[in-house]
Design brief:
Strand content: 25-35%
Number of strands: 10
Number of helices: 9
Strand order of the largest sheet: 1-6-5-4
Largest sheet: 4 strands, mixed
Shape: elongated
Distance between the termini: 24 Å
Length: 214
């Protein structure tokens, strides 16, 4: 899956001159936590998050009255608060690379660019929805997590055995196991029973870590 398949298209944006009071109102109105900031040419100038607004707000210990606070905040603009060193992706980047960038840099969103123009944004919520879709969590089936040898043909044996019993794999995810030359595999299948799935895994030499109806 690519970024363009799961990103939020045409995100709400603000200009560098937008006051943080207006930015806060926009976030509240649209129920969002991130606002790309575009300059007059339409190029990405920065990103403004709800946390940035919180940090920019005066301390509760301030001696300023309400009117003074409102005046000061109305003069504080997105340009002065936004993050300018923004990590971005293109719409043809893979979802897993987008997730890696967000994890490695500790960020909650990635503006998506096409020919240097903003066409979307990827947020943590978008990744969660993609995770749900990739595991087909809303469909019933049998889910098994097993450890297999790291060698060609292991997944082929499991998938063929499931097919031979009239089952259908609806999701499969693999990752390195803690031991050398082994791999952790999570398979979700429909059309077979839990006991049939257990028998398949055991006959294929897989060590079952977890198996359940979902």
């Amino acid at each position: 899956m690519l970024v363009k398949d799961m990103m939020t298209r045409n995100p709400v944006t603000v200009s560098p001159e937008t006051s943080i009071l207006d930015a806060k109102d926009i976030m509240t109105k649209h129920n969002i936590k991130k606002l790309p900031v575009l300059d007059r040419s339409g190029s990405l100038a920065g990103i403004l998050t709800r946390n940035d607004l919180i940090k920019a707000a005066p301390s509760d210990a301030t001696t300023l009255d309400m009117f003074e606070l409102s005046y000061l905040l109305s003069k504080l603009t997105a340009e002065k608060v936004m993050r300018k060193d923004v990590k971005t992706v293109t719409e043809n980047e893979t979802v897993e690379e987008a997730a890696r960038l967000m994890e490695d840099y500790g960020i909650g969103c990635l503006p998506v660019l096409k020919n240097k123009l903003l066409v979307g944004i990827v947020t943590e919520s978008d990744l969660f929805r993609t995770f749900i879709d990739m595991f087909d969590t809303r469909s019933a089936g049998v889910r098994a997590t097993v450890i297999v040898d790291e060698k060609p043909g292991q997944l082929g044996k499991i998938s063929q055995a499931i097919a031979d019993l009239g089952g259908n794999i609806v999701a499969v995810v693999t990752c390195p196991a803690s031991m050398d030359q082994r791999r952790k595999v999570t398979v979700k299948a429909s059309g077979i029973t839990l006991e049939q799935c257990r028998s398949i895994m055991e006959n294929c030499g897989a060590k079952i870590e977890d198996i359940r109806n979902v």
